[in-house]
Write a structure and sequence with these properties.
Elements lengths: L1 E5 L5 E8 L1 H18 L12 H31 L4 E7 L14 E9 L12 E7 L3 H14 L2 E5 L7 E8 L12 E7 L7 H5 L9 E4 L1 H4 L4 H8 L13 E12 L5 H8 L7 H36 L6 H11 L4 H28 L6 H18 L7 H12 L2 H20 L4 E7 L1 H8 L3
Parallel strand pairs: 5-11
Antiparallel strand pairs: 1-2, 2-4, 3-4, 6-10, 7-8, 7-10, 9-10
């Protein structure tokens, strides 16, 4: 097979393949022999169908299929062997002349190849990048303690309603005279939190309410923009809510008030295990230590974000084969159309630029990952997930099992691979560039990260 590659402007490549009979005939013959072995034709024993009959019935289709497979293999082999940085997949060239496979070879196939722009990116100790350490101050520790105390809290039964209390009671639909409507909606044991009522005058109806009181309110007025909440409260279909304009009575049968846990040994044990922490001072120190460890990951993430910005500015605007890339993007999003491509192309190029920069950094620093790296990243993700819910004392066995479950799901694996590369890349680059050490509170840090 003869293959030629033209790349005059460095980013738009044209790959031409000339296929001769000798390139595909053996493959076609082998496939036809396999067809013959399996063919079930009346009047012939299995494997004894005349080859002429097999060729007549399947020959053209097999020839087309084998040539198509051969072309695919040869394109990717040529691209790899010649170290062409191809973007996306090859596209049949607009200059392609229709090929009639019913005629004898040779056949010529042309493919447009999008090629990555050439550039060089390097980092050294002459490059300075900000590195933010998040301060674990008293305010942050107090917030964490408040979260732990809330998670370990409980509900007390009380006699009189206050803001944020939870009410339980019986709801009945009323008629125009304020009486219980015959055949109207009735819900026993309905749960209501007046604090979440959207309209102030409806919310105030519950102020100071006591056990046994009957409150008259209007759900449609209380939740004017949330048919879902009304549907859930009244146990009716969402479609029926539009017709509900009646007032309802709510007879309070129970008032529950959430009470946070006290800062005591029971709370210490629930967070860190029995007798691991003995007093509030040690509790605060343990929390600060845990927060510092968790926030390192946030600092590292921002560092890589800042490295990306720094290098994107350093590299500048690259030249891409825009028309061809848009064609590839449209081919991959046929159901979304050209407007989707136009609206998202600029962001796609931004992500592609970083991908190419990152590839160079990974190669230049000899970064490789294995199964153990991916497993550790999955475990890190598991710990972070549990930490969001204030669960910091999870046995390693559970972390390991959670990580294994993540690794079984295809949708997680690609992101875990990327994250594993980022973790190693971050660790390496922190020792390559000069770090401009800075400090920020968590609120300041979160403000900086908005929109990142």
């Amino acid at each position: 097979m003869k293959i030629s590659f033209e790349n005059p402007d460095k980013v738009n490549g044209l790959l031409t393949l000339t296929v001769e009979t000798a390139d595909f005939q053996e493959r076609v013959n082998k496939t036809l022999k396999d067809y013959r072995k399996k063919a079930n034709v009346p009047g012939f024993r299995p494997g004894m169908v005349p080859m002429g009959m097999i060729k007549k019935q399947f020959g053209e289709a097999v020839k087309a299929e084998e040539i198509n497979k051969l072309i695919g293999e040869e394109i990717y082999k040529y691209v790899n062997d010649n170290k062409i940085k191809m973007l996306g997949e090859p596209m049949a060239s607009e200059n392609q002349v229709p090929v009639d496979l019913s005629k004898d070879a040779p056949y010529e196939f042309k493919f447009d190849i999008a090629v990555a722009p050439e550039f060089k990116v390097e980092l050294s100790d002459k490059d300075t990048v900000d590195f933010y350490t998040i301060k674990v101050d008293d305010d942050l520790v107090n917030r964490q303690i408040d979260m732990f105390a809330s998670r370990a809290g409980h509900y007390d039964k009380v006699e009189e309603y206050q803001a944020n209390d939870m009410l339980k009671g019986d709801i009945r639909e009323l008629d125009e005279n304020g009486n219980t409507k015959e055949g109207g909606i009735t819900v026993e044991g309905a749960v209501l939190m007046p604090e979440y009522i959207k309209v102030e005058d409806q919310k105030k109806l519950f102020d100071g309410a006591k056990l046994g009181d009957i409150i008259t309110f209007n759900p449609k007025k209380a939740y004017p923009e949330s048919d879902v909440e009304i549907s859930s409260l009244l146990k009716v279909k969402k479609e029926e809510v539009a017709e509900l304009t009646s007032d309802f009575s709510f007879q309070i049968t129970e008032i529950s008030r959430f009470v946070k846990s006290e800062i005591n040994q029971e709370l210490f044990d629930s967070v860190y295990g029995k007798d691991e922490v003995k007093d509030e001072k040690a509790f605060r120190e343990k929390i600060a230590e845990g927060l510092s460890a968790q926030l390192v990951n946030d600092s590292d993430y921002k560092f890589l974000v800042d490295v990306r910005k720094y290098l994107e500015n350093k590299v500048g605007e690259l030249t891409f084969p825009d028309a061809l890339l848009k064609k590839i993007m449209l081919n991959n999003n046929k159901d979304k159309g050209e407007k989707f491509v136009e609206d998202n192309y600029a962001q796609s190029i931004k992500e592609l630029t970083w991908h190419l920069i990152r590839e160079q950094l990974v190669e230049a620093n000899g970064i490789k990952i294995d199964d153990n790296d991916i497993k550790e990243t999955a475990k890190e993700a598991a710990r972070a997930q549990f930490a969001q819910y204030g669960m910091t004392n999870i046995p390693e066995e559970y972390i390991d099992n959670y990580a294994n479950d993540m690794l079984k799901k295809r949708e997680y694996v690609d992101s875990l691979v990327d994250r594993s590369i980022d973790r190693k890349l971050t660790a390496v680059l922190k020792n390559v560039v000069k770090l401009e050490q800075k400090e920020a509170t968590l609120d300041e840090f979160n403000e900086m990260m908005k929109g990142e």
